[in-house]
Structures are given as C-alpha cells and as structure tokens.
Amino acid sequence: MEALDLAVIGDAWLRLFELDSLLYLMLGTLIGLIFGVLPGLGGTTALALMIPFSMNMDAGDAIILMAGVMGVAPTSGAVTAILLNTPGTAPNAATTLDGYPLAQQGRAGFAIGAAASASGLGGIIGIIFLIAMVPITREIVLMFAPTEFLLLAVLGLVTVSLSTGKKFVKSLIVGLFGLIIASVGYHEVTGEERFTFGIDYLWDGFKLVPVMIGFFAVSEMINLWAKRGSVAASGEMEAINFRQVLQGCLEPIKRWKVLLRGSAIGTGVGALPGVGGTVAAFMAYTIAVTTAKPSERDSFGKGNIVGVIAPESANNAKEGGALVPTLAFGIPGSAEMAVFLSVLVLHGMVPGPTIMTESLDIIWILIAAAAASGVIASIITISAASSIAKLTFVDSRTLVPIVLAFAMIGSYSLDNEIYDVFTTLAFGFVGFIFMRFGFPRIAFPLAIVLGPLMETSYFQTLRIGDGTLSILFDRPQSIVIMLLIVGCVAYYLKGFLTSSEGKETSA
Amino acid sequence: MRFLTALVALGLIASAPVQAAFPEKDIEIVIPYGPGGGFDTLTRKLAPYLEEYFAKKAGKNFNNIKVVPKNMPGASGKKAAVYTSKQKPDGHTVQIFNIPGHGLPYIQGKDAGYDITGYSWLNRVGGDGYVVIVAKDGPYKTFQDLLDKSGDLKIPEQGPGSTSNMANKITWATFNKGGEYIYGYKSSRDYSTAVLRGDGDVTMLAAGSAKRYNKAGDFRIVAHWADQVDPAFEGAVNGNDVGHPELHDLGLLRMIAGPAGMDPELMKTWNEALAYAVNHPDIQAWSAKTGNPVLAYDSPEKTKDVLMKNLGYFKQFSKVFAN
User: Fold this and answer.
1) Which of A77, A279, B191, B287 could lock onto A89 through a cystine, CB 3.0 to 4.6 A?
2) Phi, psi dihedral angles at B223 (to 5 degrees)
3) Which residues contact A439 (CB under 8 A, 6 or more apart)?
C-alpha cells in the first residue's frame, strides 16, 4: 500500500465526517481545551486520563478522540499565557514574553486572535510537512545522531542568548542558573546522583512543569500583588472587542514569513525525539528576534505581535513533526507522544517502519483528525477571545488568589506530589527576583530543557567519536547545523554593529 | 451509536455502588514508570480482564469494582516499590515489578528502602529472553564476527543498571570481550535505532521487542539466549552453540506482587486472577500480534521460586555490574 494512497486519504476524511467521529473529535477538543487552559494540566495529562475510556472503543474512534486532545491543548494554553502570564502548557511559556505585555496594554484580544490563528495555521502547516515526510520518515530519523542533537542544543542556547541584546551577560547568568538546576538528579550517563542531598524527590531532577508554573505564573502573581491594580489598565477596556480579535487573526497572514519560519522550526524540532515543543517555541521566538530588523528588536518583550506568532505557530506545527519518530520508529518525540504511543499499542498497532503499510488507514484518520481539531480549537478560541480577555481587568486582589490556587492545583495534580507544589512556590520567588532585577528570563526554560540533552549528547558524541569531537566535521548534517550557528551569530553581530547602539529586549 | 453507548457505559461504571467482600473497594495496580511504556501498556491491557475475573468469582454480588492502573514514576522505579511496600497487605494494592531491574539493590547488596524478596509474590505476567542485535547492513554477519572485532565493542544503551545493560555486561563478560557503553538513549527503541544508525556496533533486546522492532527486517539477530532459537531469528546461535548454555538463564520478568504479609488465600485468588487475565484469548491474541510475551504460573510459590532463581543468577555477576 502506497503511503500517499488517495483512496485511503479520502476514506479517512469521510470517516471523520461521520456523526460518531465528529462527536468524538468534539469531545477530545473540549477536553483538550480545558486541560490546556489549566496550568500544568497539558495534553499529556489529558491523554493519560483518556486511556481507560479509549480501551473499549474502536481503534479509529480512539485515535480521533486522542487527536482531538493533542490538536487543541497547545492552542488553549496560549490564552492564559497571554492573559495572566501563566502558560497553560510548558511550550506556551514563550508566548508570555510578548503576549502578556500586549495584554497589559489592553490588547489581549489582538494577541489571542493572533495566537489562535497562528496556532491553527501552524498546525495545518505541520500536518502538511508530516504528509510530505510520510514516505521518508525512516531516513529523517536515521539522519539525526547524538552529534546533531549536541549541535542543535548549542544552536538553541546561542540564539536565545543573542536575542537578549545588551542584556547578554545577565542572560548568561540566567542560562547558567538553568543549567545548574537541570543538572540536579540521577545522571543517566555516569549513573551518579548530583545535588540530590539524599532527598528522593530530587533523584529525577526538577520536573519541568512545576518549575515553569512557578517561574512564569507564580512570579507574575507576586509581582501583580505587589503592584496592585489589574493586568491591563482599566482605561483600555473599551478597546477589547471582536474587531480587535479579528485584526489579530489576520496578523499571522500579513506576517506569513514569520508564520512559515515558525512552523518549519516547530515541525523540524518536533521530529527530533527528546527535544520537544518548549524548545521549538523558544527557538522560533529567538530566531524571530535575531532575524528582525535591528531597529525593531527593542520592541520584543514589550508587546511585539511577532513574539506571539512565532512560538504559537511552532508549538502547534511540532505536533505534526513529533508524529514522525513516533510512528516510524515508536520513539516518542515528546511525553505526550509517549502516551499516545501506548494507545496505539493497546489497540494492537505496532509503531515502526511497517506501520505505514499495516495501519495506513488509521494513520490517515489520525492526520485528518489532528488537522480538524486544530482548526476547531482556533475557531472556539477566536469566538471566545473578546469575552475572556476581560479577565485582564479583574483586580489583583481577586485574580491573584484564584490564579495561585489553579497554579498549585495544576502543579499538585501532575503526580499528586506535594513537593511539586513547593517547587512551584520556590521557583515563583526565584522568577520574581529575576524580574525585579531586570534579568531576562527567556534563557531559563531553554537551559533547563536543553542542558541535559546537550550534556548527554556530548558524552555520546565523545564515545561514538573514540574520545574526540572530530566526528562533528565528518557528517554533512552536522556541518549544516554548525553553519547555522555561525550564521546566527554573524547575522546578529552585523545588525548589532550597524545599529547606532546595541538594543535590548526585556524578555 | 458508538459514542452514546460508550458514554452510557462510562456513566454506569461511575455510578456503581460498593460492596463489602474482597475486593471491598477499587484495586490499584502500581506501575513504577510513566504512562506509555511496556509496563504501562501491559498493565492497562490486563486490568479489564482482572475486573472480569473478580466479577465472575463474586457472581451476582460483585458491584463493578475497578482495577485502576496507577503510574508512579520516579527514581528508576524505587519510589513505587517503597510505596507498595508500605501499603496494607489486603490485596487492594499490588504492583508490577521489573525483574531484575528492581532487584539491582539486592544483587549489589545495597539498601534501597525496600526488600525485593519480602513482597507477597503473586504471579508472573510477562517475561522474555535476550537476543543480540546488529544492523543488517552493517559489518557483522554472525555472533563470532562480533567476538573477532579488534578492540572493544561499542554498545548503545539506556544507562547503567538497566536490565538490558545487565544482560549486555553478563554476555560480554562471559566471552571476555570488552564493551564501551554509549549511555543516555531513552528507550530500547531508541538504542536499537542507534545501532541501525551506526552509533555503535551491537546491543541487546528482549526477544519480543526484537521481533517487534524488526518487522521491516532492518536488524540481524545473531544470538538468542534460549534453549530453542526462535524461528523468527534465522541464523542466530544460542548458548549451546557457543558453549555457554548458562546464558539461557539470562531473562527478564514482569511480575506482580503485593506488600509483605498477604493472606495465603488472598494470594491464591490473585494468582488465579492474573493467570485468568494472562491466558485470556484476547490477551493471547494481542500478545501474538504486538510481540509482548505474556505467561503466568500456577501458584504464588512457583512465582517466588522463579524470582529467587533469577535474582540468584544475576547476583553471581555483581562484580561485573560494579565496573
């Protein structure tokens, strides 16, 4: 059976438009929306909770339900990121950097419109990439060895550091702090424990979600409480209407290059196992900053809509990319994909090179459902945006306790672990201190995610290369990534030197 | 309608009352890893058949008590093992164990906060032998080719202390062949793909996993440590062929146990429930299709004997693991 068999593709879409299938899709989308909005409860949690329910279902229905959840969670997570500086899912943290300043300016509707539209379009572009990659998935996965992962991690950290302009040194300090935090726990390469102080909780290191909720959401709530008032100035309230939302929706189309670049980064990074959506979103953000005109760079972190479009398009496009290693090799590209993988196995499918021949019909149902759920999510978000944006005018005395309660519940419910709540609180205070003293926080999440990947890949590259790194120069794909690193540095320096003075972002 | 039927079923399950006989309340099966892995998948697959068994055994009085898989990842399985050891031995909390992985502290004589030999061992639900795999298009055609390689073999692996790492170390130590381990791969899928990519020369997999991963014929299985080489592994040698039949004891087990001190009658009930689930035609068909080997024993005593034999086998090599 050919991977791009038109009859199979047509059947998949017809199946999706059956009443039962549509109901499952809507149910999955609804569940994904709720879990995406609540801090900490992303698509992974929603999928895990859906497993028992899906077991007695037909395989196609189960896949449609799951695809509904997966397609929508990243979109809805952007809403709280913009309104409350509280990322619904970890990858939405990048959206807070410019989305929240827009909300503070009373332009939340504009930002949500842009985020929803960028998410929907990014998701579709990701799916198109996936379709194009279906026949060559195996080659893509085999192309990326630890050597390339090492260089990609370096690329991520370099671009994020450069994007902070004159705050480069402060950004390095934040990045270093992130790397130290990332090094806590059992080291998978050496088999040693680091900085665990005999505490079992630290054995696996700090978990990403409680750290992110603390670092972005709790710190912002502390800040808001100290400032008093509301997220946006109340004088701006009339400005939030559906017209503003629609203007936001059109923005990704006007800035189609940002959209395409973000989607391409999202799909590419998503296809690399273990890298995931957080890196995709932050990398898209930092590349958007790095490639912006020098005169525009200072507007990032202060409410530049490009800073919303880039990460949101990447975040949704990564779903398409992440399916590549999941389906072709059974290697999940993310935690969410790991859970999805078990659903496939529970329904008797065997992910691997032969899935494209043995279960092609199911794969196309999955692709159709994922594309449809992204569009449904965007429509729902856009429809509700002008109403939910009014949340930014709620007084901090009402808002802060509610958001903190959700943040703590989200953190606790991840693993029913009280220490996760303590972690969230601790990183809330750390994030607040960084904010107070003008440290750009953007390097932190990337350092946390990329630190372990970089370290592990470094050790693996050394072992593969018989103790040297010369192997980096033996592989064409490694050389391409190295050129990208050099290109990013050179491009940024050129802009930095030609501008009258180095600009800075307050991200 | 499929959708409505499923919703109604969900509603019925949620509204069911509870009754006072074992099981008195919902049963939890602790999974020491996160959702999505082999242990998680197998447990979730078995749970509905365990419910079916308990329902049949209780007859009319059974009130839809659920068997709930509970993921408790952390500290490479230690967190769950400690948790289970502290629960009441009333049969309402049991755990799926990774043997010899969970037995590593016992094998190395270290304290991990739990005693692997002290649990109430109920039954085995899965288990497998090991195979040695290389890339089909690579330079190695036979097991002997690997032994003949000058210098150490490069072996992609998950990390020190993983069950496949123990299997690798024992295998290569048996033939006095040096191994340079490339650690840090996330799963058996990941490190077998690394062999395919050329990151390393060779690695080891559970036989069932090897069958699953090799559906496209990318790998060559050069050795199968079992009394009979599986027909799927054409050209592979076994321990008898290479003068080391003791390697056939090198296996991994997926076993279910409850906290220490469970009543013998309760243990027998659980043993039968697990055997019922594992031997159910649906599970057997699923096992054959997906390559997840399942097998149960006829008594808790046999289960404990097999456990101790497995741990004893690995304990002989405690010095190898220390390196």
Assistant:
1) A77
2) -150, 145
3) A167, A170, A171, A173, A174
Total residues belonging to chain A: 507
On whether the CB atoms of residues A112 and A389 are closer than 8 A, the answer is yes
Q: Tell me whether B177 touches chain A (CB under 8 Å).
A: no
Residue that has been written with the tokens 């690399």 in this structure: A272
Of B35, B37, B181, Cβ closest to residue A51: B35
CB of A54 closer than 8 Å to CB of A343: yes
CA-CA distance, B223 to B235, in Å (whole number)? 8
Nearest CA in chain B to A23: B3
* Amino acid (one-letter) located at A267: T
Angle, helix A59-84 to helix A43-55, in steps of 10 degrees: 160
Report the distance separating Cα A241 and Cα A229, nearest Å: 22
Under an 8 A CB cutoff, do B44 and A51 touch?
Answer: yes
**Which ipTM score applies to this complex?**
0.78
Q: Return d(Cα A36, Cα A300) in angstroms, integer.
A: 25
By C-alpha distance, the chain B residue nearest A471 is B199
Residue B205: strand pairing partners:
B131
Q: Cα Rg for chain A, rounded, in angstroms?
A: 22
Report the first-to-last Cα separation within chain B, whole angstroms: 60
Min distance B129 CA to chain A CA atoms (Å): 20
Q: How far is CA B189 from CA A338, B29, B156, in A?
A: 12, 25, 11
- Return the residue in B169, B290, B292, B323 with the most chain A beta carbons within 10 A, the one to mutate for interface testing: B290
pTM (global) more than 0.90: no
How many angstroms separate the CA atoms of A483 and A480, rounded? Answer: 5
- Quote helix, strand, coil % in chain A, to nearest 5: 75, 0, 20
- In this structure, which amino acid lies at residue B45? K
Q: What is the pLDDT along chain B (323 residues), one digit of tens a residue?
A: 555 555 554 444 444 443 346 888 889 999 998 776 778 889 989 999 999 998 888 776 666 788 999 888 777 788 899 999 999 999 999 999 999 889 988 998 888 889 999 999 999 998 888 999 999 999 999 999 999 999 999 999 988 878 888 899 999 999 999 999 999 887 888 899 899 999 999 999 989 889 888 888 899 999 999 999 999 999 999 999 999 999 998 888 999 999 999 999 999 999 999 999 999 999 999 888 877 788 888 899 999 999 999 999 999 888 887 76
DSSP codes, A95-107: HHHHHHHHHHTT-
Q: Are strands B120-135 and B251-258 parallel, antiparallel or unpaired?
A: antiparallel
B135 three-class SS: strand
